[in-house]
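Hey, weird one. I pasted the Potassium channel sequence into the form twice and got a warning about non-standard characters only the second time. First submission, copied straight from the form history:
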Amino acid sequence: MFKVPVICGTELQREIELSLDGSHYSLTTGILPSLGARSNRHVLLRNFIISPYNRIYRFWETFLVLFVIYTAWVSPFELGFLHKARPPLSIIDNVVNGFFAIDIALTFFVAYLDTNTYLLIDDRKLIAWKYARTWLAFDVISTIPSELAEKISPSPLRTYGLFNMLRLWRLRRVSSLFARLEKDRNFNYFWVRCAKLICVTLFAVHCSGCFYYLIAAHYHDSSKTWIGASIPDFKTQSIWIRYVTSMYWSITTLTTVGYGDLHAQNTGEMIYDIFYMLFNLGLTAYLIGNMTNLVVHGTSKTREFRDTIQAASSFANRNRLPVRLQEQMLAHLCLKFRTDSEGLQQQETLDTLPKAIRSSISHFLFYSLVDKVYLFRGVSNDLLFQLVSEMKAEYFPPKEDVILQNEAPTDFYILVTGAVDLLVLKNGVEQIVGEAKSGDLCGEIGVLCYRPQLFTARTKRLSQLLRLNRTTFFNIIQANVGDGTIIMNNLLEHLKEEKDPVMEGVLLETEHMLARGRMDLPLSLCFAALRGDDQLLNQLLKRGLDPNESDNNNRTALHIAASKGNENCVLLLLDFGADPNSRDSEGNVPLWEAMVSNHEQVVKLLADNGALISSGDTGHFACIAAERNNLGLLNEIFDRGGDVTCPKNNGSTALHVAVCEGNVDIVEFLLDQGCNADKADDHGWTPRNLAEQQGHEDIKLLFQSPKPARTKSADVKFLKLPEEKHGVRFIGRHNSEPTIRPLSHDRDEGHSLKHAKRRRANNFHNSLFGIMSSATGEENDLLLSVNQNRSESKFAQSPARITVSCPQKGDIAGKLVLLPQSFQQLLEISMKKYGFMPTRVLIKDGAEIDEIELVRDGDHIVFAGDLMVNDFLL
């Protein structure tokens, strides 16, 4: 299990300090953050299990390397120059062996990295089994004391120090140390390699000298040895003299400058010299090759970098560029050199991989960050995945311009790490107006609104940003049309929240462009209703959008318009065939949305067009009214035909809620309507039990003397659903793209975009056929242009409203409708509303109308037959 640590406190301060340097373009000391701002991941291991990457354990391993170096020197020395144990070396040997014995025990509690899965294994049995079948035997043997080994060894092998040569097995720790140091950025690779080559050379010289002396010391005629020829009594000399003489011979042989004073005297020494010189040939080639490679590799990159810097400086001087631009050029080149020299060509590496792998890597690194960006709240997972796959990660050094004010909006950026200042140019002086931090956007307003960039974005410190091209972004949006409206709505809400004159101007201009249909993103009826824009709604309906389209919660544009009390939008939707009795996922109907928001005109308008409160979840409505202690709303539900005694989905009724609220008036009203005080909910609670449990004495008295229920037939006229007449068909619900999630400002339950479930994409409209169909429709149904004549765009403005009535069908008060564009459409309204084709169309004062141009906003039109005309006039 992995955790992503959060950089905070001193770590963040250290990152900032490393990113900033004395020069704006000097980045030699900073540490580049990992791609995607994901730090090294920590692993949660079992109790008493140590991670091999633990800092303390690493220190312990480094500490043991000091003893390994001692072992590498003392083991050949004791073999060549000592015949028995001699303090203090024997004491030190046993102390060192004790430390390695502790390490053996500690290894049984150290997790290891599985080479197949690259996961840390922390199972004790697996750790012990792996150690037992690999290095355990060698480690145990190398820790046995020399004195004990000499006693238990066979007679021919009882040479002191011979058993100590097995301790050279510990040299693998030194090799691992150098391998780690070569990858450690805190150490210079060149000097680490040089130190490694020097250590290899000294170890070879030391071992060779000790072994060569061992041959001479055990030869039967000491005068016929390489050291006895120059020092006849060498065995009586001090160990220091003998050791120095041996090292002198070994080095002169290695460097091929001998033999003058010391040379082989017998056949055994000659054979040893032959193999040693052959070994020296390979060692010398290894040393020369490594040193040459280090020098060439280091100088080639540096030379190329210096040539590039010189060319950039010459270019800047020749063209007399400002100092700030020169610094930005040099900073960019220095950063590129850093990434190249450290092997961090990240984008180049990604570009060489197949698209599927690139997408998976981008999803892993950036998805969690992009998901939190305000612009993409509520969009589908498919859209986020496509966007992340097309984003490019880029590094910017401190004080470098990412976006320039008034430049063309070709890209926008998401800040991953670092910080960016937002600047504007006022009166020739740059002023900082804001700061972008991790997860913020830069340049999105220019891209989405297609206007010059509002600000200059300049990095404060070393920053990593994700770049997304505008063309690529809109191509993806066109394949996910439903998400486009969500993105635009998120942008508009963000502009509303910004208390800045510039942002307010952008908001007004953007809404104006939306009303004229000049934005590239697709729009929906729900979006227009949400914004209360009847002009845009009228244009979208003319383009053929389904008036009953719904969002994820099955809320139609009529639900939204009714909740906002927008009469014009409600009229438009009803006139184009919107279902006044459509239910959302919570059982709400447009009539209830208007009632709960206290929009009386909209309530009357919906009721006149066949809206019924009984089409929704009246039990839920009654519970809400009781919870709000709103007796008037509860009475209105009853008056409009709603059954206030119905339970909602959990079995509780409005009477349960009223008892909990302690509202005696509502309890009395509900009892009058026939509510049962002994009806239990899903949890077994009845209103009577609740009254007793909560101690409502007044309510308990009401329950003890119930009043006779009042029937609905005595007080209210039932409204019936309109029947299908004369071929008039009521349009049912149909989900279509594009859709948009509604805002929560006018709903008690308040589902904000930030916490709402993600929308489901419509497969047809996201397919090639849907896109082509949409494109064809846009060509044939273009929105009205701003430059059109006002006489040609009469209905692009707020449409006129008239009242129609038909006394012959019993309707004298009339119904409010939108003024149609032709006289024939006016007659069709009569057929649609009354199932009656009039022979004459009159205004209220009796004048006959035969042309639609004579009708004005607010007129009362009467549909009449020949037999009704005279009666009406009288």
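That's the output from the first submission. The warning seems to come from a hidden character in my clipboard, not from the data itself. The chain has 34 helices and 16 strands.
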